[in-house]
Amino acid sequence: MENNKRGSWGSNFGFLMAAIGSAVGLGNIWGFPYKMGKSGGFTFLLVYVALAIFVGFAIMCSEFALGRKTGSGPIAAYKQYTKRFSGIGWLALLAPALIMTFYSVLGGYCIYYIGINAAGIFGGMPGGESFGALLSNPWMGIGMTLLFMVICYFINRGGISGGIEKFNKIGMPALFVMLVIIIIRALTLANAVEGLKFMFVPGYAVEAGFIEEAPSLISVLATAGGQMFFSLSLAMGAMITYGSYLGKHENLPKNSLVIVICDSLVALMAGLAVIPAAVANGINNGIAVADIKLSGPNLLFSTLQDVFHNMGPLGGIFGFIFYILVLIAAISSAISLIEVIVTMIIDRNTGKGKGPSRSKITAVVCVLITAVACLVAADGLGSTGIAPINLLQKINPDFPMAMWNDCWLDFMDTWSEGLAMPIGAMIMALVIGWEQGPNSLYNEIKIGYKGNMHLFYVICIRFLVPVAMAFITAGQISDFFGNVTAGYIIAGVLLVVFFALTFLSGRKLKKG
Ligand code: PHE
User: Which end of the chain is less packed: N or C, by CB atoms within 10 Å?
Assistant: First the structure.
């Protein structure tokens, strides 16, 4: 591939590994399996796959095309692409920064667990109680977060082919092998089949008492959509950024398809690795299924650590392998988020005639993220009250508590995954479909791609994506803020207003 000052991927395989690395992350391991089990098992999987094909795949092709066509990160890319709606580029600065403030804390926790499992091999294997102790130890949290950010800094400083690509080319295959080892161990535990039933059999979660009642249809749709977006690293500028380093001869639809398939496959495999083990361990120790924590940080660091604890002396080895695997997944996603911001600043500097100075920029970005992340770490994600996000309740105890104000993790999640991603994607699709016209990007997609998916692309971008995004936004608002009607009204108004704006702007462009 051509080598300019910004850098570029060394090979298509390297690019694929990096993009899959961005997609495969904590979302696959602790989010997908539980959401699938809770929201209808196999039925949820079908909804998820349909959304991934008709919405995720189309958006991913568009993001790669936009990045490659403009040769720049999100802000500059949108500025070149659309004058009136270039503001969405800024979402791609905010959302990755927000996500990184907790992603780095969780990555740090992985390092801690690698350490305690390695020590456990030689005796005194810790169990799930270790997580409570870690959460209430601010200095340990901060130290681990720093360590995680230092690792990311060195990778991002190495640049596209010299850092990110290198890490993923080794990290991703290694992750796959380790995942297979953990799956084999998990599925051979007694009662593992209960976990499989929870994940795959529609309705089993309620029937067996894992959850009290099945979620509503809109909530399932929002869950599947939000998960799909987060998991595929969409609407965050990550794929625009990675696409901007791609050569013209690369096949965008083929690459996107491979990424979507691999990401979904790893999500399913992660489910096979963690859910059966967690459920089996709970049942074998006489815990009621409703009380087994099957998602989020508790699944990763408490429930699963208990599993390793109960495996006896070998548990330390499996725990060690498992947390290295999770750490690789976390790093490969984190570096893509950091790269979004780094690339944006590099492009800005180059535009002003300054040199790219990647090391300096990477250092500044990492320090800023770390500063906020340390607050989240000191607060133990929201458990110690050192830096409370629930300040409003402190002032007025009657203030209603919802997802957005109960803890740091959920707060960041609400704004990034809950709102910035679906709304950003909706506006993006409307701009492509109705302002600039689908061909504005399809012509870019066509380069390096011999097939014909024009009709499919037009239908997805113009109709399916915006409408699906409106429903997902409605569901997210009702889930996060606890108000269904407000969700539908806000999402509906956004859809209509932005459709009208992009449509009118498109007509003006044609005339002018
Ligand atoms: N896809 C990652 C995960 O599943 C998270 C992520 C989102 C990474 C957006 C980059 C951009 O955990």
Answer: C
- The model's pTM: 0.92
Number of Cβ atoms within 10 Å of the Cβ of 359: 14
Question: Cα(403)–Cα(153) distance, rounded to whole angstroms?
Answer: 31
Pick the closest to residue 169 from 332, 3, 341 (CA basis): 332
Collect all residues with Cβ–Cβ distance below 8 Å to 185 and sequence separation of at least 6. 277, 311, 318
Is residue 97 lining ligand 1, measured as CB closer than 6 Å? no
* Cβ(320)–Cβ(121) below 8 Å: yes
133 CB-side CA count, 13 A: 9
Confirm or reject: Cβ of 22 under 6 Å from ligand 1: yes
Out of 230, 295, 327, give the residue to mutate to test ligand 1, the one with the largest number of ligand atoms within 8 Å of its CB. 230
Residue with CA at minimum distance from ligand 1 atom 6: 233
- Contact present, 60 and 256 (Cβ < 8 Å): yes
3-state DSSP assignment of residue 416: helix
Average pLDDT over residues 468-485: 85
Burial (Cβ within 10 Å: 0-12, 13-18, ≥19) of residue 312: exposed
Question: Is the Cα dihedral 36, 37, 41, 44 positive or negative?
Answer: negative
Give Rg (Cα) of the chain. 22
Render pLDDT for 344-370 as a digit per residue (tens, 0 to 9): 999 988 888 877 689 999 999 999 999
354 secondary structure, DSSP code: -
For the Cβ of 28 lying below 6 angstroms from any atom of ligand 1, the answer is yes
Cα 332 to averaged position of ligand 1 atoms, centre (Å)? 9
- Which residues have CB under 8 Å from 231's CB, separation 6+? 23, 25, 27, 28, 31, 32, 263, 267
Q: Report in angstroms the alpha-carbon separations of 450 from 34, 53, 297, 445, 446.
A: 39, 19, 44, 10, 7
For atom 7 of ligand 1, the residue with the nearest CA is 233
Residue 26 beta carbon below 6 angstroms from any ligand 1 atom: yes
Q: Which of 35, 242, 336 to mutate to test the pocket of ligand 1 (most atoms within 8 A of CB)?
A: 336
Does ligand 1 come within 6 angstroms of the Cβ of 231?
yes
Terminal-to-terminal C-alpha distance of the chain: 38
Q: At 405, is the pLDDT very low, low, confident or very high (cuts 50, 70, 90)?
A: low
Q: 416 CB less than 6 Å from ligand 1? A: no
Angle, vertex CA 325, rays to CA 322 and CA 328, nearest 5: 150
